[in-house]
Request: fold
Amino acid sequence: MRLRWTLLLALAPLTGCGLIYKVDAQQGSLLDKGTVEALQPGMSKRQVLLVMGSPSVISPFEQNRWDYVSTVRRGRGKMDRKDLVLHFENDVLARIEGDYFEENPEQLVKDARKYKRQYPDEKRSDEEKKKKRRGQQQG
Reply:
């Protein structure tokens, strides 16, 4: 019995170090295919901002280039990085370069459920969800 407690106490600090499980980490601009396909050459910077949101990087030295950077690390795997670059000429979108993670948000939530994660909306009762939807539709 004493050996069990000693072993348990010895292994307990390791759980916080990520030795047992490593969470998937996504950072940066997570763009879906529909959003990127909505971009058209000839759009103004303002229109691009409305479609894509703020870029990750705008260089003060090169104001006609916007970078949308994102990284994903799945568990202990290597980090994947994608960089979508938008080039402007005279404040109008001229060309698009690079790539992005094509995963849609619904798939990311399904993947997260494999690990029994709950998001704030899932913790609510069905009655509370209905009230929230009604409030959003009225407002």
About this structure: The beta strands are 25-28, 57-58, 65-73, 80-89, 92-98. Residues 2-15 form the longest helix (14 residues).
